[in-house]
Amino acid sequence: MPETVFVNAINEALAEEMRRDESVFIMGEDIKRSIYGATMGLLDEFGEKRVLDTPLSENAFFGSAVGAAAVGMRPVVETLTSFMWVAMDQLVSQAAKMRYMFGGQVDLPVVYRATMYYGGSSAAHHSDRSYPMFMNMPGLKIVAPSNPADMKGLMKTAIRDNDVVIMFEDGTLFGNRGEVPANEDLPGGELLIPFGQANTLREGTDVTVVAIAGSVPLALAAADELAADGVSVEVIDPRTLVPLDKATILASVEKTGRLVIADPAHKVCSAASEIASIVAEEGFWSLQAPIAKVASEQVHIPYSPVLEKLVYPTQEKIVAAARGTLE
Amino acid sequence: MAIDKDLLMLMLRRMWLIRHFETTVIDIYAKGEFGGAAHPYIGEEAVAVGACVAMEDTDYIAGNHRSHGHPLAKGGDPKRAMAELLGRVDGYCKGKGGSMHLADFSVGILGESGILGSSLPVATGAALASKIKGEDFISAVFFGDGASNQGACHESMNLASVWKLPIVFICENNQYAVTTSYRDTVAVEHVSDRASAYNMPGVLVDGQDVVAMYEAVSEAIARARAGEGPSLVEGLTYRYEEHSLGLGRIRRGEYRPEEEIAEWQKRDPIVIHEKRLVEQGIATQEECDAVSAEVAGQIEEALEFARNSPFPNPEELYDDMFADAIPQP
User: Fold this and answer.
1) What are the tens digits of pLDDT across the range A100-131?
2) ipTM of the complex, rounded to two decimals
3) Residue A268: is it exposed, middle or buried by C-beta count within 10 angstroms (0-12/13-18/19+)?
4) Which of A18, A185, B168, B264 is the most exposed place for a label (fewest CB within 10 A)?
5) Buried (b) or exposed (e) across A67-104, using 16+ Cβ within 10 A?
6) Is residue B296 classed exposed, middle or buried when 0-12, 13-18 and 19+ CB atoms within 10 A define those classes?
């Protein structure tokens, strides 16, 4: 199977969907020259009308995506998580609430592509991993892929979905390579991954590790390390946080009796918190040990690399947490 | 601009429709038939009506918190508007929106926002879609003097201008953001003065004169359709009632003298328009009175319809969240 770099998987998905559907257009800051790589070549292929560089006006263009979608377009907005704060009113008051508040009169097929750059000394203003805050807001679908194939397949599904989707793209994964099936090898000739289906990346019997976005490669490495000690780890990537495939997680915990959740977001009210709560409520009698959360410390992201590396989940923290559930 | 009698009478009809709708709303609110906030549009009818009758059915508008008038001005159904106010299933939003969200998407309404300034980007997006698709429709957005101070307002006007989008920004300057005069919050003399900063035309219009509003907005729409970009039209107007129903009971301290209210009521938009129709021999006072009476009957029917419409069923709580449904967590 051919290998694709994560960021190129985004690019392939955008290009394929723009070819397929004329109502898809993209806008954001500096996307014509593709400073982050995901929109490379799209201006040449699709032209100025469908590839729009915006002013630094997040409220205006996040909200314009809602208005354009309301009259039949399928906008894809590129941004960084850190700039979403500037546009919170449009994301919450309009994008998330509009359909329900107006009794379902309008569909809003908008994709917000929010890249999370962290772990590279970008400091507190440029390192946000904010998906849990949006999970708390009804009306948004939340996707957090961890490998190039999922990125491509989920992005294509997001663009075809008729609701507002926020794609949280983990910048720590952008350079990762992974196998992405060629279209000609796929039934139907294209890669589409449905929302709400977790991916069991590794089967195991002793501990379940649910890992999110950039924590997934760490969890897989932790599973390798633990396997050397005879501990069998099952690694599950939920892929979409809203909707969340809780059945796969609960079935795994029923088998292993132990749960570790690795989540790059801040640990209070994190995605890990929500998954822990679901398992505590619905899978309590399967548990043989307390649930362990490995999420980011509840501090802002410090600039100094010496401090920053202390904040996030690591392979070591996941290994220690898994061992803890086995004590 | 020569305007035919049918259109002049339509303006009168729609202004009366809003006036009777709002007086009925005030009455039933006082009786406790519905709760929450409600922001009457009485006194400002000429702004919405003058603007909306200048539009085609295929054009879009977005409103604000004080938006009972906008859907009615654009041809919306008062029955469904009234049912929405009463929280019934036959309301535009099946009882999920209420007073601040009386949107009728079937007549080109993109929603009304309870967050001020928040609908400007949405309307800008509809205009963007028109341009990308190469279609002929335009969008317009109504916002107040208060909302004109929001960042979203500045951002939208700038974006619309640099992209030459077919949109008309309509400021209905009723002079007070709740209790605060725009003179204390707007750095220029008129909101329309700001247009020069966005390289678009800005015109100040007598917002009590429905024909003046119609003419100014028609010109802005023509410009938009011709691909010449956005315009800012400011209708100077006045709200007769409190900011929100019931607020007068809890407000401490005066913010506008009674004489000021009385002065503005002398320039009532319906009186001004009827006087013109009669003086110019276009219609008799009896014809005007007949329009008012007929429309009053329509509002009575609307209220009857709303009162007879059922409340939503509990299981409808979860409906309409998503177009492509997902399980409740």
Assistant:
1) 999 999 999 999 999 999 999 999 999 999 99
2) 0.96
3) exposed
4) A185
5) bbbbbebbbbbbbbbbbbebbebbbbbbbbbbbbbbbb
6) middle
Rg of chain A (C-alpha set): 20
- Shortest CB distance from B125 goes to which of A49, A64, A242? A64
For B63, phi then psi, to 5°, come to -120, -155
Nearest chain B CA: its distance from A88 CA (Å): 11
For residue A1, what pLDDT is reported?
83
**What integer pLDDT is reported at residue B252 of this predicted model?**
76
Beta-carbon separation of B96 and A106 below 8 A: no
Chain A interface disruption, residue of B61, B84, B322, B324, most A CBs within 10 A: B322
Of A64, A104, A243, the CB nearest to B319: A104
pLDDT > 70: what percent of chain A?
Answer: 100
User: Would the pLDDT of B324 be above 90?
Assistant: yes
Q: What is the CATH number of domain A199-326?
A: 3.40.50.920
Q: Which residues on chain B are in Cβ contact (under 8 Å) with A55? A: 155, 158-159, 162
Cβ pair B32, B247 in contact under 8 A: no
Sequence-distant (6+) residues with CB within 8 A of B292 are B16, B20
User: Looking at the domain covering B5-301, what would its CATH class be?
Assistant: alpha beta
Contact A63 B60 (CB under 8 A): no
Asked whether the predicted pLDDT for residue B251 surpasses 80, the reply is no
Tell me, what's the pLDDT at B249? 73
Residue intervals of chain A classified under CATH 3.40.50.970 are 3-189
CATH no. for A3-189: 3.40.50.970
Domain ranges for chain B, please list them: 5-301
Q: Report pTM.
A: 0.97
